[in-house]
Amino acid sequence: MLLLLLLGVVTSRCLHDETQKSVSLLRPPFSQLPPNFRSSSLTFPGSRDPQPLRIQTCYIEDSISDGAWDPEGNGKRGGSRALAAVREATQRIQGVLAVPPVQGPLLLSRDPTQYCHAVWGDPDTLNYHRCSLLNPGYKGESCLGAKIPDAHLHGYALWPEQGPPQLVQPDGPGVQNSDFLLYVRVAHTSKCHQEPSIIAYAASCQLDSDDRPLAGTIVYCAQHLTSPSLSHSDIVMATLHELLHALGFSGQLFKKWRDCPSGLRVRENCSTRPQVMRRNEWGQLLLTTPAVSHSLARHLGVPRVSLGVPLEEEGPLSSHWEARLLQGSLMTATFDGAQRTRLDPITLAAFEDSGWYQVNHSTAEELLWGQGSGLDFGLVTTCGTGSSDFFCTGSGLGCHYLHLDKGSCSSDPMLEGCRMYKPLANGSECWKKENGFPAEAENPHGEIYHSQSRCFLANLTSQLLPGEETRHPSQIPYLKEVELTGRCYLHQCTERGAYKVQVEGSPWVPCVPGKPIQIPGYYGLLFCPRGRLCQTNEVTNAVTSSPVSLSTQDQLFQLSLRLAGPPGHSLGKEQQEELAEAVLQALVSRGGIDRCYFHSPSITPSLVFTVHMQKSSGCQGPSVAMLHGALTLTLQEKPLEVCHGEASFIAEYSKLLVTLDHNPSKTHVSLSIGLCLMLLILMGALGIVAYQKRASLQVGPSAPYHSPQLHSTRGPVGRIREV
Hints:
This protein is an alpha+beta fold. The chain contains 14 helices and 36 strands.
């Protein structure tokens, strides 16, 4: 369950344990099935090699009443936004987790305690312990308030004292090509009404014979899906968090994790793990399985030490990492927005330890919090001693550790007295242009708000007190006394761990990590953080900078799309930039491609979108020619649909330009190269399928994006549709 706490920026806290505890977990009750019932193959999940986890989403519009109250009809209006987020989250999971596929249709179990009022109690009776009397009030099965269709369920029967059963409900046809059923509700339930800040909550409902979750439900509180305070990326990440709970990251399921020494393909030697959790000498609950312990040790820089991973103190069980130690992980109890959240290696290691999944560890996102900080990091006894600059003391202003936001030194219940720079409320995001100063406003500190701006500790000023203008900065006493505070300035990565900065009106200045620098035209200093910025291999390219040199080992392609929008719709320059970013995000999502392939997106007043494709240094994956060919095919087959504000745009493939290098005299392509390109395009159709399995979602600042194709897919009220 996600609970919004208004601490600075919008922050969420998850209460999954409370939700999961209210749900009965069902396993296949084979003793209740007559011999001639069609058996489900889910009892033999290991008969094939692991394949990407197939999640079938079912949007339930007519759900069981649980005190639901939605006076403004937000449930219907929020459905499209929820389904767009679910679709993106499930696609991402498919690139991360694999399972031995369920054979044949997936059928869920019925709860005998619900449909059966009494069973035969005489052990000498042929049908001992089978249902002898039906419950007249039985209305079917539900999963966290979502009514499960009979088509997804095993049937049930009434048994006489002797002899064959009377079939009451036959088996449904089941769900083909599915390993997990996810039911989605959008409503204003009694929980949403009682706690107006809750975004969503989720739980697992059914398990297979190896205790792997087979079905679960996410309930979205409708009022948040119609609110502009949460971006599309925020809802996607919140969905991903809840989905991982339903797939097995749950205190209620840790004790069911399996140990399969021979791997997923051969399941005969699997057993329940003898120890998954323990408490240390201070009473801290730890997850102690091998992969998570080794992953945490590598993260802290002590690879030869065997560690358990601390869990949040949430009662006898816990379903979240300790926030002091793993701040920013997707599976901590607090969610500070998509830009500050990572699907980290330690979380993926937990799914490996579950014994249910094969994990694609290449999709993990780097977790900067506490990286290389040693065994004492994150302890209540050390966080206030100044031993780590991830924590702060006092109540001053500075920068959030990811440097996306200005922050104030503060604590929260999850930090238990430890303090960190938490994003300020209103306008703390350096990466939002709208937070910048109006054109006529004074900007004495030279701040720049831009998608490539970051927070730096600085005391820069272009204004001096009267009489100080002629003195050298080193001779001005008050400049030395002014505390460094968080300011927003443009940055550009030049290589891994190296970058330069730009202040309003200044040239680009190299920023030496760990050192203070001076900026031409300004008094004071700017401090360059060490080990926080430009830690990935991707070289960013700020809009106001000169083009960054790209690798010449791969060809440069130009992809153009012609956009068709509403009649008479016009865009200003800033709106063109925002629309270009929305088209690029949709293009990345469509192709399952790493963003490092794309450079210099732009859009003309006549709505022609252009982006260059070339592999940057360190960009992992197939050749740009192969990816360009596959994108070309898919865009010709199905145009891209993009929403910007209230308007919808259709982006159709327009033309193809190939450049072998940056020399204009070499832009003409010979016939032989053209023939080779055609072969690459054909290969791309196959290559992209393989590559998509390893694709990962780049989580970063972006405008809210809504998939317009979902608006037309809602069925009539009371219907169920599969997405």
